[in-house]
Amino acid sequence: MTTRTALVTGASRGIGAATAVQLARRGVDLVINYRDKQARAEAVAEQVRGLGRRALTARADLTDADAVGSMIESTVSAYGRLDLLILNASGGLERDVAEDYARRLNRDAQVRLAELAADRMTDGGRIVFVTSHEAHFYSDGSTLPVYAPVAASKQAGERALLDREAAFAARGVSLVVVSGDLIDGTITAKLLDRARPGLIEERRDRAGYLPSIEDFADAVAGAALATDPDKIIFVGTVDQGTPAG
Ligand SMILES: NC(=O)c1ccc[n+]([C@@H]2O[C@H](COP(=O)([O-])OP(=O)(O)OC[C@H]3O[C@@H](n4cnc5c(N)ncnc54)[C@H](OP(=O)(O)O)[C@@H]3O)[C@@H](O)[C@H]2O)c1
């Protein structure tokens, strides 16, 4: 059987890195995208190679259209095919970013990358958009103020991608959304807990448990490879007022 290839955005750490490793365990060759942290991306690529799969690293800030175009072209020219696109990278909590950065990254850049990739993906390919319950269910005032621009822009990104589902399908590419509760052990969860001390424990108590990075990555990799997955997959408890990353 032909080996499938996946491009995972934001795979230098956290959920993206764990997803890349989970896909490698399931026999997929990888492109590890990152923005800045080359050494971390290389370490993830080494882990993938240690599992017997091929791995390339690709530096590209997803808000840079030229860099994204080159990343797609070099993926296709290196592997000859692109089967899976995992839209994991996300941002907006960083210090010193422009006011519209969250929207540019979490909506505009996701749509641009998905459209570019869908044009080059194999028939039967799949795009997985990774999001949080907090973004999926976002409505004004329903989240921490510091997370509101991220939640609003990720929700807008999800909706913009779902609006294009028929166009992706016409190219033989399916779309799945995977939404997670607050994920234990992530930097994002720690940043939010710093903004609202006690948040992680409160959420753990209310939800019953918090998924780990491995739990979430397992669901994302599973969604990428499943034959007939649900269109939206929820990981962790879903309820009213989920303070998640
Ligand atoms: N953390 C949670 O509790 C939680 C809960 C539910 C859903 N999620 C979702 O899971 C995904 C990953 O979250 P995470 O917490 O693992 O994220 P994270 O730790 O903040 O990692 C972000 C990754 O994205 C990359 N990145 C950031 N900005 C980028 C850009 N402009 N262009 C390209 N790459 C960029 C980073 O690369 P560098 O390291 O090179 O900067 C890094 O690899 C997100 O979609 C998030 O919404 C997270």
Q: Report mean pLDDT, rounded to a whole number.
A: 96
Distance between the termini: 37 Å
Regions with pLDDT < 50 over 5+ consecutive residues? none
The assigned structural class equals: alpha/beta
CATH topology name: Rossmann fold
CATH class assignment = Alpha Beta
Largest sheet: 7 strands, parallel
CATH architecture: 3-Layer(aba) Sandwich
Summed up, the helix count is 10
CATH superfamily, by name, is: NAD(P)-binding Rossmann-like Domain
Spatial order of strands in the largest sheet: 3-2-1-4-5-6-7
What Rg, in angstroms, do the CA atoms define?
17 Å
Give your account of this protein's structure.
The chain is an alpha/beta fold. It has one domain: Rossmann fold (3-Layer(aba) Sandwich). 48% of the residues lie in helices and 15% in strands. Strand 1, helix 1 and strand 2 form a beta-alpha-beta unit. The structure holds NADP nicotinamide-adenine-dinucleotide phosphate. The site of NADP nicotinamide-adenine-dinucleotide phosphate (NAP) has 32 residues, from helix 1, strand 5 and helix 8. Pfam families: adh_short (PF00106). GO terms for molecular function: oxidoreductase activity. InterPro entries: NAD(P)-bd_dom_sf (IPR036291), SDR_fam (IPR002347).
What would you say about this model in short?
It is built from 10 helices and 7 strands. The protein is of the alpha/beta class and 245 residues long. Helix 2 (38-50) links the parallel strand 2 and strand 3.
